Amino acid sequence: MKLGIILSTKNEETNWNALRLANLALSKGDTVSIFLISEGVEYQLASSPKFNIKEQVEKFLASDKAKVLACGTCLAIRKQESNEKCPEGKLEDFYNLVAENDKVLTF
């Protein structure tokens, strides 16, 4: 299965659960794409000992079946730089995530 996940919040528990689901899907052999939009581009800043998002992100990005992109406009609004864990994408990438995946979940 090809799973698309849209993260639009910086809520640490919500994003932690979304990433745990993404990692479970990868462990079952699925392909997972994540698009970060709105305050979701800040997802990695909200990690805590209770909701260790950084650990989940590292695990996710270690897979060759995982992809993450962030809305470039949303990054710019927040004066946030593109990086390996939050690479800049475009609206076209968001559209492709929706169009090309079997299932799309929003968080």
Automatic annotation (TrEMBL):
<dbReference type="InterPro" id="IPR003787">
    <property type="entry name" value="Sulphur_relay_DsrE/F-like"/>
</dbReference>
<dbReference type="Pfam" id="PF02635">
    <property type="entry name" value="DsrE"/>
</dbReference>
<dbReference type="InterPro" id="IPR027396">
    <property type="entry name" value="DsrEFH-like"/>
</dbReference>
<protein>
    <submittedName>
        <fullName>Uncharacterized protein</fullName>
    </submittedName>
</protein>
